[in-house]
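New to this. Help decode the following:
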Amino acid sequence: MESLLGEFSVGLAFWQAMLFLGLLLLLRKFAWKPILNSVNEREAKISESLELAEKTRAEMETMKAQNENLLKEARAERDAMIKDTKETVNTMIEDAKGKARVEADKVQSLARDAFTAEKVAAIAELKTQVASISIEIAEKVLRGELASQDKQTTLANKLVEDINMN
């Protein structure tokens, strides 16, 4: 096994340690500062991004709550508008029904009055016609009765007696 590892040399170990320390010093001077600066900058950016994300999340929660409140208000307003509209429609329908009833009553009353007037006019006309026909019949009967001179004289005497009695 010693052949694989070889012999240990103090001089070689010393130079390897010196090279390692020199490399560490060079890396510290030229590489670690830029690396640490970029790591610190990245850490600051990540921290800022996390803070911004947290603020954004909080704002989103606030906006979500505001949106929900707005939606509730809009729904309540919509429901109130629908209720008002229904009430208005029902009122308009009831008013229209009332007006229609009043108009129907007026039309019915006018029709009744017109019918009554027509009835009275028809009865008056019928009475006039009956009177006219009665007069014509009486005239014809009287002509038949008074066709002879004797009948005329008898009727005249009878009428004079009736007048004298009254």
Q: What stands out?
A: Residues 2-165 form one domain. Residues 10-145 form the longest helix (136 residues). The CA atoms of residues 50 and 141 lie 132 Å apart.
